[in-house]
Amino acid sequence: MYRYLKQLLRKIIPRKLIFKYEPVLRGILYQFYRGNNFHCNICNKGLRKFIEIQNSDKLCPNCGSSSRDRRLWQLLDSEFLKMKIEVLDFSPSRSIYRKFKRTPFVSYTGTDLSGDFISEQNYDITNIDIESESQDLIICYHVLEHIENDIQAMKELYRVLRKNGTCIIQTPFKYGEIYEDTSLNTEKERLKHFGQEDHVRIYSVNGLKERLSNCGFKVGVKEFEEEINNEIGFEKEETILISKK
Fold this sequence. Notes:
Blueprint: H1 2-12, H2 15-30, E1 34-39, E2 46-47, E3 51-52, E4 58-59, H3 67-80, E5 85-90, H4 94-101, E6 106-111, E7 135-141, H5 150-160, E8 161-170, E9 173-174, E10 179-180, H6 187-194, E11 201-204, H7 205-214, E12 218-225, E13 237-244
Parallel strand pairs: 5-6, 5-7, 7-8, 9-11
Antiparallel strand pairs: 1-2, 3-4, 8-13, 10-11, 12-13
């Protein structure tokens, strides 16, 4: 039902209006999910249950956060957010974007080229139009697997990051080696080989770590494991790369 309603709204309402009124619509939806079994750490609402979508992910009905959004916010809040920090977020989730905008001590900029996300800027990640060493924290979540020239993107991320700054990176991962093939350039082929129509590769953790290291980053790997049906709705297993300059 949730998927059907979402598709219907997208067909009849312009995207900008959906973005504008989404908090109101979700506030109404939340009334059907209000409870004490689970908790969203982004909007701080108690839930009877999460919305389970087709890929088995769990969405918060009130703010729309996915499991990876909630993990990201937990990590940010516990380790990286501090006074007067400059944050650059590529293709931000709407729940994370709105959370940052309610965080007064952070200077936060969302950027997106596709038009599918809320943002103030539309920087090309392979040619970021901002000064070198200007950002304390960069969030690059599920972006690099879309970028054909990912090495150039990594070099740009390194360039605009301040010394001792951090870039938090996540993509889909596989075991073994990075799988990419530039001859696979149709949506049908990319869906079959990479899992999504606009993906151009699947990284392995070690493969992505090596590419980032070759661009100058000092890369650490954070691995998380949770109980099924945990209170915050985290994925059972999740990996995030913490890349420092």
